[in-house]
């Protein structure tokens, strides 16, 4: 009976190891090159609060296109959408048609990103907002909002903007969406109480919705009511 040759076995194992390493390297290189191209857009995103020249946004978009040509990543698509959206708001744009084209590009970028990573509450909210700017059917906007709520219920930085924007469509919500919206009120009270009070001060008819949402937290309801009363007295 033939015996296995230990030397041959070692060579086979070593050969397989080399193949695996080469495969991993081939997978890693595109990601690495893409990440290098994404450095400039990342820096731009961190400076978004400043009034950057349009050329900076255009260069960022070009770099992201190169990054995506090496590796399709949800974050790159979403970054591209944010930068395009900012560019569309620049007052120097020559014509409304140009802004409309940019908004459609923003919409397409967001959708690409969501296909790669659908559990993205910011992406779905961003899509709802852009759909609204494009005057898409309200049901399409509401559907994006619903997916945003499901993708991330507790998002401190998103909770108030999403509540305020989606309140526009509240009369068209079904029971499921109304319940999702109201569940955001205790979250808003926990993370951004003053902003929630200011929002309800502008929409006093929604006070009863807060009362329902805080029904199991009477102390919070009392604190909210007192804070709202103070704001309303200052701004009759």
Question: What does this 3D model show about the protein?
Answer:
There is one protein chain. The termini are far apart. This protein has 236 residues and is an all-alpha fold. The mean pLDDT is 88. The protein contains 12 helices and no strands. The protein has a domain of 65 residues.
Secondary structure layout plus pairing:
Elements: H1 6-37, H2 39-46, H3 54-70, H4 74-88, H5 96-116, H6 121-133, H7 138-151, H8 159-167, H9 175-191, H10 193-202, H11 207-213, H12 218-234
Which terms would index this structure?
12 helices, mainly alpha, 236 residues
Oligomer: single chain
Rg of Cα set? 25 Å
Report the count of strand segments.
0
* Poorly predicted ranges: none
- What is the mean pLDDT? 88
Q: Helical stretch count?
A: 12
Largest sheet: none
Helix content: over 70%
Strand content: under 5%
Structural class by sheet pairing and helices: mainly alpha
Brief write-up:
This protein is mainly α. It has helices at residues 6-37, 39-46, 54-70, 74-88, 96-116, 121-133, 138-151, 159-167, 175-191, 193-202, 207-213, 218-234.
């Amino acid at each position: 009976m033939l015996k296995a040759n230990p030397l041959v076995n070692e060579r086979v194992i070593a050969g397989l190891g080399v193949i695996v390493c080469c495969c991993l390297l081939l997978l890693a290189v595109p990601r690495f090159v893409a990440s290098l191209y994404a450095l400039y857009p990342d820096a731009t995103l961190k400076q978004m609060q400043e009034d950057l020249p349009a050329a900076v946004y255009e260069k960022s978009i070009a770099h992201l296109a190169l990054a995506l040509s090496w590796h399709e990543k949800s974050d790159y698509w979403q970054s591209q959408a944010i930068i395009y959206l900012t560019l569309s708001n620049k007052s120097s744009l020559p014509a409304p048609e140009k802004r409309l084209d940019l908004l459609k590009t923003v919409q397409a970028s967001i959708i690409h990103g969501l296909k790669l990573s659908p559990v993205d509450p910011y992406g779905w909210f961003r899509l709802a907002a852009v759909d609204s700017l494009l005057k898409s059917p309200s049901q399409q906007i509401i559907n994006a909002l619903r997916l945003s709520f499901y993708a991330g219920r507790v998002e401190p930085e998103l909770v108030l903007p999403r509540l305020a924007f989606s309140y526009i469509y509240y009369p068209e919500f079904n029971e499921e969406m109304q319940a999702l919206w109201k569940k955001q009120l205790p979250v808003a009270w926990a993370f951004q109480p003053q902003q929630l009070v200011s929002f309800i001060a502008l929409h006093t008819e929604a006070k009863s919705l807060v009362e329902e949402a805080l029904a199991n937290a009477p102390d919070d309801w009392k604190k909210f009511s007192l804070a709202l009363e103070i704001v309303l007295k200052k701004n009759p």
